[in-house]
Every structure is written in C-alpha cells, then in structure tokens.
Amino acid sequence: MTRIRDIAHRNDIPQELKSEIKHRLQNKLHRSADPGDLKTCEELIHRTRQWHGLSDGFRHEFETFYVELKEFFNAMGLDKLLEMVKKQTGLEHQVNEFLGMKYHN
After folding, report:
1. The pLDDT value given to residue 15
2. How many CA atoms lie within 13 A of 17 on its CB side?
3. Cα 75 from Cα 35, distance rounded (Å)
4. Alpha-carbon separation of residue 26 from 41, 87, 93 (angstroms)
C-alpha cells in the first residue's frame, strides 16, 4: 500500500494520471482490495506504456507495484508452475498456447 500511495503522489506525472491512479486504484485498494483491482492496474499500466514523457522512475515503480499486486492475489502462481512444467515435460507448445489464450482473451 505504501508503494501505490507514493506513486499516486509523485510530482513527475500529469495531474490527470495522478488523480486516476489515486481514485481508481489507491483508494479502492485501501477500502477493499479485490482481484478486479488487477484489471484496473493492468489497464493503467497499458495506458502509461503509451503515454509519452513519463519518467523511467515512475514507470519502474508502477510496473513493480503491478508485479507485487499480482503476487498478492497469487495471479502469477499458475504462470510460474506452467513454466516449470514446460521445462520439465517438453510441453512447450501446449503451455505457450494456453498462456497465449490466457492473456489475449
């Protein structure tokens, strides 16, 4: 929670983005975090990747927060397990196909 608060109060991001992070993510997480917040964070991450002029420091901190949020909700557990299965079983094609469907649907 400290990281997202710090991110939402940075002085090197536009006020519009600062406000959106604060209202759509920080305040919501503070009240009642749920897996839907991952989707919100993912949407904001995609927008910031396309937003020109944002500092590398901001991008790094926001991406780090996103990884931490996924770990909090254990959303990365399956991916890590599948990567191990892929390496140990030779099911590379099947695992890649599954992961592709997971992230593109």
Report:
1. 94
2. 24
3. 9
4. 10, 37, 38
Q: Give tens-digit pLDDT for 44-94.
A: 999 999 999 999 999 999 999 999 998 888 766 778 888 888 888 889 999
Cα separation, 68 vs 105, in Å, equals 23
Q: Would you tell me the crossing angle of helices 92-104 and 77-89 to the nearest 10 degrees?
A: 160
Q: What is the pTM of this model?
A: 0.69
Our separate counts of H helices and E strands in the chain read 7, 0
Burial 75-88 (b: 16+ CB within 10 A, else e): eeeeeeebeeebee
Token pair for residue 83? 């990567």
Half-sphere exposure of 102 (CA within 13 A, CB side): 11
Q: Exposed/middle/buried for 51, CB within 10 Å: 0-12, 13-18, 19+?
A: middle
